[in-house]
Write a structure and sequence with these properties.
The protein has about 60 residues and is mainly α. The chain has one domain. About 60% of the residues lie in helices and about 0% in strands. The protein is built from three helices and no strands. It has helices at about 10-25, 35-45, 45-65. Helix 1 packs across helix 3 (about 45-65). It is globular. The two termini are about 15 Å apart. The relative contact order is 0.26.
Length: about 60
């Protein structure tokens, strides 16, 4: 569970990836079996940054409700 008030965006790459996940329809997201590989390659993320971007995405979605 993420905390709505705490940002997980530790840098600009994490923030851009999270914003892309929020703004892009789910039908255009990479398939689950390739999700990590595609996101890491597209946004040049480390594993820790990928995890942070997914957490930040969840936080942003909660805030936008």
């Amino acid at each position: 569970m993420t905390t709505p008030g705490i940002s997980y965006a530790t840098n600009e790459k994490v923030e851009r990836a999270a914003r892309w996940l929020v703004d892009t329809p789910l039908s255009q997201h990479p398939p689950v079996e390739f999700f990590a590989e595609v996101m890491r390659s597209r946004f040049k993320l480390t594993t820790d940054e990928l995890i942070a971007s997914v957490r930040e995405t969840d936080r942003l979605r909660v805030l936008e409700r």
